[in-house]
Amino acid sequence: MVKRSAWESHLKATHGPAISATLLCALLLIALRAHALEPIDTDGPDFVETSEVVPKGYFQYEVDMTSVRNRRSAPHSTVISTPTLLKYGAADNIEVRIAPEGYVRQDGKSGLGDTALGIKWHAQDRDPSQGKAAVSWILHFETPSGSTQLRGNGIRPSLRSVIAWELPHDLALGLMPGIKYDTREDAHRFTSAIFGAVLNKRFSDRFRAFVELSAPQIAHARDGGVLAYWDLGAAYLLNNDLQLGIRTGVAANRNTPNDYVLFELAQRF
Asked: What is the percent of the chain where pLDDT is above 70?
């Protein structure tokens, strides 16, 4: 048996119950806080992002591994990238966002892509009983911060709105219109539209699947034209704070690279 000093015995006798009670209360509050949270709500793997924001005081990451194949022109090419979205709940209806493109390999070049800084505002809650949609706004600024050979020209701002409805039979419909002020490789500035539409089906508390039309760029032919895909994907909750996802797509027109596949890991702290 280890002998206690007089001071240790006095501390235990006078403060032990208080310390134990304080520790118990702290653990109880942490448990209640974790239990009160809904399952993680992610912007991916869908192209159409969620209308919800990360809960206040929480951090969330979504890391993707993407492969895009283009067989429409010679030489054929495959672009590999690891886009990541880092989000923090700054208020009940506001999240701040950092979106690095991560590692990119294309056309014999490799390095780090540009990083976007942004904010999301959850402007309206949904009310299925009244057919009321949830609405959010997402403002991003892509910065010329990547490796020299992969860096874009200037700051490219974009604004998107996410509108989401809950439907009968565990279905959900989401729309994401937007606009972007972009830059070509020759530094010419142009404006393009963004659009996405997704239909989600929840098969259980942990598993959902979706079909989607994604158009990251709707522009004049001289500025790259329309890029659009037909998508199919799914997401599975490992627990309330951890999710795996996949999305694959095929070109919706002849201007778009043939196909792609995306894998995603998302976690909330």
From this structure: 87
What pLDDT shows up at residue 74? 74
Query: Measured between alpha carbons, how far is 28 from 17 in angstroms, rounded to an integer?
Result: 16
Q: 197: which 2 tokens?
A: 């539409």
How far is the C-alpha of 162 from the C-alpha of 136, rounded, in Å? Answer: 5
The pLDDT confidence band at residue 4, using thresholds 50, 70 and 90, is very low
How many whole angstroms separate alpha carbon 125 and alpha carbon 133? 7
Cα torsion at 197, 210, 171, 180 (round to 10°)?
A: -20
In the predicted structure, residue 55 carries a pLDDT above the cut 80: yes
pLDDT at residue 3, rounded to an integer: 44
Look at residue 169 and tell me whether its pLDDT is greater than 60: yes
pTM of the model: 0.85
Start-to-end Cα distance in the chain:
41
- Whose tokens are 């979504």? That residue is 62
Name residue 94's amino acid: I
**pLDDT per residue over 103-118, tens digit each?**
999 888 999 999 999 9
Query: Per the structure block, which two tokens stand in for 155?
Result: 């700051």
CA proximity to 50, closest of 165, 184, 164, 146: 164
